[in-house]
Structures are given as structure tokens and as C-alpha cells.
Amino acid sequence: MTPPAPGTRPARRGRPPAFDRAEALTAATRLFWERGYEATSVADLTAAMGIRPGSLYAAFGDKRALFEEVVREYGRSPAGAFLGAALAEEPTARATFARMLRDAAAVYADPGHPAGCLVISAATNVSAQDAEVQTHLRDLRNANLQVFEARLHAAQRDGELPPEADPPALARYFAAVIQGMSQQARDGATAAELARTAELALRAWPG
């Protein structure tokens, strides 16, 4: 075999260099969050993640599988986990929903990441072949709604809410406010503006 010429590097052989999976996933999350599922192509993803298409498919599966992993990781991140934290940590239902609304104002307008909520906005418009993506995110939002309703029913049983209160309607109201705050953040609303919306929404609390 002829040795390499002086000053040149031998060609690499074997497996390609590994990449940082966590960093690649973070880059994919930001792109899906900014552009949404439909508007983000595989070429966009590989460019942002710094990998080749083959590496994406080998490490994550296809675009949909990557997106589903992004959504799972987002749900564990501070930006995606604040609703669950409030539900788990606050002693009363009113304190729970007050914290969720106030945290939504801060998180959705945080300049350190894309505005709004990925689960709310990433699949608002998708093609027919990707309808399962839209359904998946809708199911996640509806699961949150069911948790809201269960917390409010418990508050009513415990006497925190009056008998005439309507837990299902109240749950939908707070879910609608939170989803609206996400869109307002994407439209440029500041944390202070969203915080005022949160305080106004809390005036709907029965009693």
C-alpha cells in the first residue's frame, strides 16, 4: 500500500465519528418549537443537528419518531413540566391554578427559548399523512384538561369550591387561557403582559 504523501492525513475508515445525542435533540427541539412539525424538513433538522440524514435515521428513526422523542423530552424540561409541578406541589386548587397561570406567563415569554408551548403550537397545521402527529398532541392537551377537571372536582368535594361551581367548565376555561397565552407569546406578548392576563383570569375563581 502506498503511504500517504507528506503533510496529508490518511483517509478515515470504519464507523463515522459519534455525535452528542443530547445536543442534537436540543437542536431538533428548538427547530420544531420555532417552525412547527410540518414546516420543518429532514434537511433542516440535519443541518441544525450537525448530522447526516443516515445518522438521524439510525439514531432516532424517521422524522415523526424524532418529533415524538422531542415532545417527551420537552415534557420533562422546565418549559414543559411546570403544569405538572404545580399540580403535584401546591396544597390547594386555587394555588395550583394561580401558579400554573403565572408560570405560563413567565415560561411562554422567556427569551431563552422559542415563545409559547411546543405541545400547543407545533402541529396546528399538518398534511393528511401527518394527521397522527396532530392527534398525538391533541391527546396530550386533552389529558391535561382531564387532570385539571379531576383537581377541580377534588376541590369541590373538599369544600374549596362551592357546590354550584362547574369543574368541567372551569377546567376548560383555564386550559383555554393557558393555550391563548401561548399564542399571545408567539405573537410578541411580554411576560409582564401575560402576567396581567393571568391575574385577570384568576378573578373567575368561584367565590
Automatic annotation (TrEMBL):
Task: Please name the taxonomic classification of the source.
Answer: Bacteria, Bacillati, Actinomycetota, Actinomycetes, Kitasatosporales
The organism encoding this protein is Streptomyces rubellomurinus (strain ATCC 31215)
| Pfam families in alphabetical order | TetR_C_13, TetR_N
Residue ranges of the HTH tetR-type domain? 18-78
Say yes or no: keyword Transcription present.
Answer: yes
Molecular function terms, GO-annotated: DNA binding
What protein name applies here? TetR family transcriptional regulator
Q: Which domain of life is it from?
A: Bacteria
Which stretches are labeled DNA-binding?
Answer: 41-60
For this UniProt record, the keywords arranged alphabetically read as follows: DNA-binding, Transcription, Transcription regulation
Q: What InterPro entries does its record include?
A: Homeodomain-like_sf, HTH_TetR, Tet_transcr_reg_TetR-rel_C_sf, TetR_C
